[in-house]
Amino acid sequence: MTILSEFLEFNEAFVNDKQYEKYATTKFPDKRIVILTCMDTRLTELLPKAMDLKNGDAKIIKSAGAVITHPFGGIMRSLILAVYQLQADEVYIIGHHDCGMSSIDTDIIMGNMVERGIDKNLFKTLKYSGIDLKDWLHGFSDVTESVKMSVEAVRNHPLMDNQVPVHGLVAHPDTGRLEVIVDGYKFHTENQGNIFPGK
């Protein structure tokens, strides 16, 4: 039995038994937040539990390392849409310790591509076209600095509402403990006056 067939077999029982009913919610986040976090498998259930989030509480966007690599890429687009269309009033960038993006060896990745059939001459073509594959695949060496950079990318984006607090946190992938790197409320209090009563 393939993994796909296992999924489909389970899914049929899930739907037939109406197990979906306990997850019923709307497309709008109840806590009015959007989270950008890493796609690390350790965070799939751990992070929402560590934040006391249930289905429907938050929009959650995942990418390798919770990194925003392009100001007009898909991740930034999703954050913008969450704020302007889907009622998110706050943004949370949550990286984590022991992230795979902090130990990426681009030479190994490119070697793996070649082993799987990618023509290595394509790397030269991409470079000639202005795409440095090593730079594009590169991760980061310090998760704290990476989170700060992503927070700044969102906060300073020309299309982002500057009244939206952008928080930066780092999670421990084993315990779920959160460390605040950037307090978005504090930033607004210090730079624009306290626009968040009670914060």
Give short descriptive properties of this protein.
single chain, alpha/beta, 2 domains, 5-stranded mixed beta sheet, 8 helices, globular, zinc ion binding, Carbonic_anhydrase_sf, metal-binding
Please write the CATH class name of the largest domain. Alpha Beta
**Major sheet, described briefly?**
5 strands, mixed
User: Using DSSP, what is the number of strands?
Assistant: 5
End-to-end C-alpha gap: 53 Å
EC number: 4.2.1.1
Binding site for Zn(2+): 38, 40, 96, 99
Cofactor: Zn(2+)
GO molecular function: carbonate dehydratase activity; zinc ion binding
Walk me through the structure.
The chain has 199 residues and is of the alpha/beta class. The chain folds into 2 domains: 27-102 and 141-199, Beta-carbonic Anhydrase, Chain A (3-Layer(aba) Sandwich), CATH 3.40.1050.10; 105-138, no CATH class. It has helices at 3-16, 43-50, 74-84, 106-115, 121-128, 133-137, 143-155, 184-192, and strands spanning 33-38, 58-63, 90-96, 166-171, 178-182. The protein has a 5-stranded mixed beta sheet, with helices on both faces. Mean pLDDT is 93; it is low at 194-199.
